[in-house]
Amino acid sequence: MKCSCCGKKKRLFESFEELDTAVSVCVECSKKLYKYQDYMKEKNENEAKKILVEVKGTKNSPEFEVWLDAFLLRFKKKEDVGQTGNSSTESSEKTTTVEE
Ligand SMILES: [Zn+2]
């Protein structure tokens, strides 16, 4: 097994974190992703960006890239997301009108 993020091979006693069925990352990459999350929560976007550059600068697998896109979307404000053309299978509960 290889890390979907950096391409590093899994060692015998190393535990990879499974992010998705086709996406597993090594401890280091998983730490980076958690850090990114923390920085985004703290609104420390500069540090978050640095981590993202690091993460993207490695041998990302295509599956990881897809996962990362979805991951990053979680941090975007709703109005920034907009319509991305070919996302078809995402029409579950988007029309929530709040009225009081
Ligand atoms: Zn890795």
TrEMBL record:
Listed Basic and acidic residues bias regions? 91-100
Quote the protein name from its UniProt record: ClpX-type ZB domain-containing protein
Task: Outline the segment boundaries, as ranges, of region: Disordered.
Answer: 79-100
